[in-house]
Amino acid sequence: MKLAKVIGQVISTIKHSGLENDKLLLVDYLDSDGKTRNMPGVAADIIGAGTGEWVLLVEGSNARRVLANTDAPLDMAIVGIVDEVVIQDDVIYDKRES
Q1: How much is the pTM?
Q2: What does each C-alpha distance from 4 to 10, 39, 87, 92 come to in angstroms?
Q3: What are residue 84's phi and psi, to 5 degrees?
Q4: 57 and 76 Cβ atoms separated by less than 8 Å
Q5: Residue 77 · residue 44 · CB < 8 Å
Q6: 20-65: per-residue pLDDT in tens?
Q7: φ, ψ dihedrals at 96, nearest 5°
Q8: C-alpha 16: how far from its chain's center?
Q9: 63-88: per-residue pLDDT in tens?
Q10: Which residues pair with 68 in a beta bridge?
Q11: DSSP type of residue 39
């Protein structure tokens, strides 16, 4: 899994039938200081994440497993919304404070 921040939405009215019911979000990977890495990607969101939230991502074949339709052409999916990140006793992210 990887940490990322939701930075926007991707609207696609015409897409593969395996992705018809999924919201697509624009995410950017985070470094160990919680800064975006300027490496955006598009992830399927089945849990209801919103812009500005930190999320957990899975990639590759694991991403397809989160969808009911395993034939969907998917290589990135959001599988969790982060509440807090602590590195060596330092809280670098707390959802309640954002």
Answers
A1: 0.90
A2: 16, 10, 16, 13
A3: -160, 145
A4: yes
A5: yes
A6: 878 999 999 999 899 999 999 999 998 999 999 999 999 988 887 7
A7: -70, -20
A8: 19
A9: 877 776 667 788 999 999 999 999 99
A10: none
A11: E
Query: CA-to-CA distance for 77 and 60, rounded, in angstroms?
Result: 9
Tally the residues of the chain: 98
> Locate tokens 């598009």: which residue?
42
Write out the two tokens for 89.
């006793």
- Token duo for residue 60: 């590759």
Q: Which of 31, 32, 52, 56 is nearest to 43 (CA)?
A: 56
Residue recorded with tokens 């999924």: 22
The tokens of 20 are what? 């018809």
Query: Tokens 């034939």 label which residue?
Result: 71
Residue 6 CA to residue 56 CA, distance in Å, equals 10
